[in-house]
Structure formats: C-alpha cells, structure tokens
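Inputs:
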Amino acid sequence: MEKPIRVIQYGVGWIGAAIVRLMLEKPGLQVVGAVDADPEKVGKDLGRVAGANRDLGVPIGRDLASCAPSGADVVVHSTTSSLKQVSSELMECARLGAHVVSTCEELSYPFRKQPELSAQLDQFAREHKVALLGVGVNPGFAMDKLALTLASACHRVDRVKVHRVVDASRRRLPLQKKVGAGMTVEEFNAKVATGVIKHHGLPESLAMIADALSAPVERIEETIEPVVATQSARFESMEIPAGRVLGVHQVARGLRDGEESICLELHMFMGAPEPTDSIKISGVPDLSMQIPGGIHGDLATAAVAVNCIPAALEAKPGLRTAKDIPMCFFPGRGRS
Amino acid sequence: MEKPIRVIQYGVGWIGAAIVRLMLEKPGLQVVGAVDADPEKVGKDLGRVAGANRDLGVPIGRDLASCAPSGADVVVHSTTSSLKQVSSELMECARLGAHVVSTCEELSYPFRKQPELSAQLDQFAREHKVALLGVGVNPGFAMDKLALTLASACHRVDRVKVHRVVDASRRRLPLQKKVGAGMTVEEFNAKVATGVIKHHGLPESLAMIADALSAPVERIEETIEPVVATQSARFESMEIPAGRVLGVHQVARGLRDGEESICLELHMFMGAPEPTDSIKISGVPDLSMQIPGGIHGDLATAAVAVNCIPAALEAKPGLRTAKDIPMCFFPGRGRS
C-alpha cells in the first residue's frame, strides 16, 4: 500500500508557486503546510496564493514550527539564491527531521565557494539524518548534471564545453529585468558591479563538473557582458532601442596553468536566435549533445524540484547535489 | 586516505577485455582476479588475454572461488545476454560478498519479462548485502536512462520516442555479423526466427521507461526487419551486393488499447547515414535531444560498466538498474 509523501512548501514566490501547482497534480504528494516571510501572504490559503484557483485548506504560516505541527517527509524550499541567507532556513527544516529539496542556486554545489558553511550544513543534516539536496535546471541540470550523465559513456574526458542559449523574450518579465533587458550599457555595468545582474550558478556548475571528473581546475574565472541591440527590436513586454541591452553573455572558465578544461557559456537575451542547450565533451570518444529549443528554465526548475522529491527521500543524509542522485521523472505515486 | 577498489573481471571476451583495459587506466581500481570459462584462456595472464600487452600477475581462473581467495569489492561481469544463463554466475558473485556490475543485456531491466527470476536474484542479493547492477550503453543508457534523465525537466510526459541509428560498418565484425550484414533475406529471416539475429534489450529499455513514468503500457510489441541493399556497397570488412542484407531495423512499441505511448526504434546497418541518438519527449514541455554521430556502442559499453563501479558500491543491496543510480564519469580515484 502506497502512502502519500507529506510535503511542506517553504517560500511561495514565483518558483515556489509553480512547484505547488505541479505538486497538486501528483496524487502521491500531499501538501501539508506552507511558509512564507511575506506578511501579505501569511494566513492566506496556499492554493489561492500559488495560483491554483482553489482553497487547499493549507494556510501559509510565518515559520515552519507554526505551519506543520505534525511534521512532514520533505520540505521543498524556494526562497533566495544566497546560501548564507538561507542556511538558517535549511537548518530549521533539518531540525524538523524533514529532507529538503531546495532551489537555492548556491546550494547546487557549494563545496568550493563556501567550504565551511557546506561542511557545517553537511554535518547538521547528518546529525538530523536528513538529506539537504540542492536542485534546479540551471544550476543543477542543463549545464552540469546532463554533461556528467553524458560523460558516463566516455573512457576519458579531456575538456567539457557547455553552451546554453535562452531567448529571454519567451520568459517572464522578472527574468527579463534580471538580465538587464532595456537598460543602457552604463546601467547594466553598474548593476553587474553591484552583483544585481548575474545568473547565479555558473561557478557552482563548473565546480560540480570539475570535482566529478577530477579535472585539474585551479581557478574559475567568470565574465559578464551585455548583449547590445544593433537595431531597435519590439518584444511583447518591451521595445528595446538600438544601443540598449538585450541581455547577458556570461562565461565561466575552469583553468589550470592558463589552460581551459571546462567552459560554461550562457547567452540569455531578448530575441536570442535558436535557443539551444549544447554539450560538447572532448575525450575518448568525443561526444556532443544538443537540445534544440533549449530546456525551458521556468517550467523546468519546478519540474526538477518536484521530480527530485523521491531521490531526496532515498539519498544518504548530508549535503547532496544533483551529481549524487539519479534524476528521473516522478509520475506522482506515493511511497510503499 | 583513499584505498583502491578491488575488482574481479568475470568474462574476458571482447567486451570484458575492453573493460579490463579501461580499468587499468584508473589508479583507484585494482584488478585482483579474472574468470573465464574458455579453457584456452584459463591459466593465462589477464593482461595478455585482454590485449593490454603486459603481464598483470593475474592468471585467469576457471571459477570465482579459485581466482580470488581474498575476495573483492566488485565483480564486473560480462559473459552473455541471457539472464537465465548467467543467474547462477551472478549468485556466485553475490555469495562472495561482492557487488556486481554486469553487462548482461537482460539484467538491464528484467522485472517485466522475468519477474520470478528477478525476485529471486533481488532476494539473494539483499541477503548477501550486495547490489546486482545491470548496465550498458544499450540497454542501460542510450535508449532508456538518458530519456528518463531528460524527463526530469518535464511537468508531464505523454509519449517517448527514441531513435538510435548505428552505422554497423564502423563497428567490429562480430557485431556486423550479429545484425545479418551480407546475408540473403531468407537467411536473415531464418536467423530472426531462431533468435540468432536480435539486438537484446529493447523490451528491457521500454519496460524501464514505462515503469519509471508509470506509463500505461499493457503490451510490448517488437518487430525485426532486414534493411536491404538497393545497390551493391563496399565496406572495409565486406562487400554487400544489391538485394542482400545491410543490417536490422528493430522496433519496440509500448501499447495500451492499441495506442502507442513509448516507441524505441533501432537502425543498425552497414553504411547507415547520419548515425544519431535522438530522444523526443512529448509532454509539458516537449523536449528533444540529439547526439549527432551517436554514442559509440563498443567504446561506451566498457565505459559505462567501469564508470558505474562507484555507483554499485553505493547502491542499496538488491537488484538495481540504471534507473536507480546516478550515472557519471568515474575519474578513477579509490574510495575513502
């Protein structure tokens, strides 16, 4: 007899809401609680806030303790990109004895950039016998896990090159703003300097690949540049005059002695032609893969989070990443 | 401190030999024994038989007991395609307390076709606290695991279509013969009827996908047809006159009420144009993937087997398949 997996949604922003709507389609998942820091959302029914157009009988709570008196098997966590900011939230979940699936970008592979915090979270999760699993489509899938999966068919891997091209005009407005669409180059550069414009996750993806392959990467270099409109262009959400910014071109390179062994390149701009995810492994044998049209970031992040719930339940306690788990579609059964 | 993983190679045929040569490149693996039923090989040094052109100090034994008195962490098993034929060998490995990575095609996903034998092997492996892991490039990767991995980015999966095109002229001669290259159509059909010509694994791949997706597949249909030369063609290994067979076109379909939800199609023939692996998922969102040139079957089977060794060590005891494990390149470190 299969019984439903009891889930709490932590964070009901855009991604969190998409996750909730998807979870409602899976009979084996039972959403038993929800948390959000926004006073506007607290007390309201999760179904309404998440755009499910019906009451779920699950009021959004201010904190975990108040929202799920009888606990849960898993917390799906989706608040912000910064691991420092969310680490106390993750510990709160672990203390509840629930496994955590989090879309926090910096959690996708934190070991290189934040070794101390990683060790601390790993230790804490082990003590509470739960898995803390960082997931997402990027980082966590398109530019790392997929390349590692492909590499399992190789005898030797010398070099990995991943290129993701996203047409930002087909994505939601907040993402268009996040890549600087419509800004002047000066505005763009200022926002890059203060860290406002930035896809989070390239160094994490690169570190995941480097460690999995034991690739000799001593240094990770990252560059962010604007893609500038050469002629004015009209999109559904905005018009962008010539000379203004369409979006970002971001590259992370893994280097040793100046030589590049891993290169992750992301083009994310309005009207980007031929959106694609492509992976090229140079080795024995060479192996390359293309996903024409690309993986839809907004849809896929929610999908990956929900699809990884069973893997989180099966994972070894501790801090885990996409590298450690089998990734698969989750049809929505409960657990036996 | 990392210590090497101790491995026994069970079966030193073409694939087994390729696996051994690859294992010798991984410092974290120590080949401590080898078994083969062929009296011509027994007593000879594994390094010579496997084509490594040097002695390894590992004589090939007739059976497991005689070849590895002090045991091993893993047995890499590569003898034949038939699960019935190898099940006693697999049990012999489990009895030794070693995890098993096997390239036996029918082990890749045996639960539908051989439920009783599967249950028996699963029980036996659990009792001996080892994992029995069926792996390979096809079945086990190109036409199943890769599709499931891709599906982790989907909200809903309605239909899966996988198409693998292999140019048999770029593969070894035994494989060319296995697909019927050079035969008359009558010879081909006779060999299909007796089960001699057949790629093993399509129903296994299809069952793996169906079960993982909870796809409503009541029946699996399989067809095998010859691809016939319309004009004579010269290849490195043979010349094939017009009217003779170039290879196979094999299709497996997963059906419910006559409706197809999964289709796996394999073209494997001499001179096949544009070898490719392609996967097409219809769902939310649609998602398709191509590997131009295709995954090289001979190279990749050895690669997958060796790369999956760490996953076998980490897997839960019992009968396991590619679906259950993270697939990744194994750089060849030992274990800590």
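The mean pLDDT of chain A is 95. Flag for discussion at group meeting.
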